[in-house]
Specification:
The protein is an alpha+beta fold and 115 residues long. 22% of the residues lie in helices and 29% in strands. The strands form 2 sheets. The chain has a 3-stranded mixed sheet. Strands 2-3 form a two-stranded antiparallel sheet.
Length: 115
């Protein structure tokens, strides 16, 4: 799934549009939000400066409005996958959780600790 860093002065939804175009060649229009995902047990330790971060992901719904699926320096393959074939794809469990939520739930995901 496309993703990346938020640039200063940019809205989060604009980040989603930009990162999707940069990584996939596909232009999108944001139509909603799938959820906000985080895992307190998953932290990233940057050894270059000894910084420890807990990442989070905001997942948007969108529709393609232009462009062509094209790999970039940040992607190795870009393609449309039929929904019935998604279960056959190898991916990290965190990615599968996001996709499953997007396909099966109507309310945005909010981590259980916030409820």
């Amino acid at each position: 799934m496309p993703g990346g860093a938020h640039d200063p002065g940019e809205s989060l939804s604009r980040t989603a549009v930009r990162e999707t175009q940069e990584e996939t060649g596909v232009d999108i229009h944001v139509t909603g939000i799938v959820g906000i995902f985080t895992d307190p047990t998953h932290v990233i330790h940057y050894t270059s400066n000894d910084e420890v971060r807990q990442e989070f992901t905001v997942v948007y719904r969108g529709e393609a409005v232009g462009g062509e699926p094209t790999p970039s320096s940040e992607s190795t393959r870009v393609e449309w996958v039929p929904v019935d074939q998604i279960a056959t794809l190898a991916m990290d469990p965190s990615q599968r959780k996001r996709i499953d939520w997007a396909l099966n739930e109507s309310e945005p995901y909010i981590d259980p600790d916030a409820r």
